[in-house]
Fold this protein.
Amino acid sequence: MDALTAVPIVAGTVASYAVAWLCGVPLLVPLLNTAASFPFMVLALERGDLRLAIARMLIWAMTLGVCATSLSYRYPAATDVMFLRGASYRTEMFAWVLTGQGAESSPSVFIPQQAGHAALFVCLSIATGGVAAMPMGAMLMNYMGHYVGTLAASSAHPATTIVLAWHPWAVIRVISFVILGVVLSMPLLSRIVGFKVDWRVARSFITIAAGGLVLDIALKWLLAPTWQRWLLHVVGW
């Protein structure tokens, strides 16, 4: 992806947080986040370039993660309110880091939860051409980033904490959701905007995303208990 395209996506996403901060309405945050990037995805799909559309949305997701983490590190109390489900997710994850107990280390809890999120995201992508799925994705990114940023803010080693708290399985999940969101938005968008879908390429990306979601669960199942001990040691509680 050319840098000239990445710059407005990054700049628009950063600006969306600034506008949301000034408005002070939590529900607006994921909607403004989405408005900053959705047109760039549509333009790439209209050109018939699925790979470019996915690359653009990966840049967007990365920017969301950086912004949410940075804001939460600098303003943990304000972002507790600003990000939907920020406070409850932070509380849940802090308890897990401290005790090792919680959904993150309980496959019987996190597997149905993640399956439910994925099913809802897939349905929204197909039914709305991504219009409703992208705000959901932004909300998930924001409260995950809030956990990471606030944990770093209370840590003895903030930089290391930020790296570890973006759990590898969560990063894989984000990438998988981005791919699914772009690919599954195409059936509706192709009819509205008017472009042809190369389903051979689309199916290959769906396979990659599905594999990523399976890998996410496998890594979380295997690594979460060890990861919690590493995090607790680094945070220094």
Notes: The mean pLDDT is 97. The radius of gyration is 18 Å.
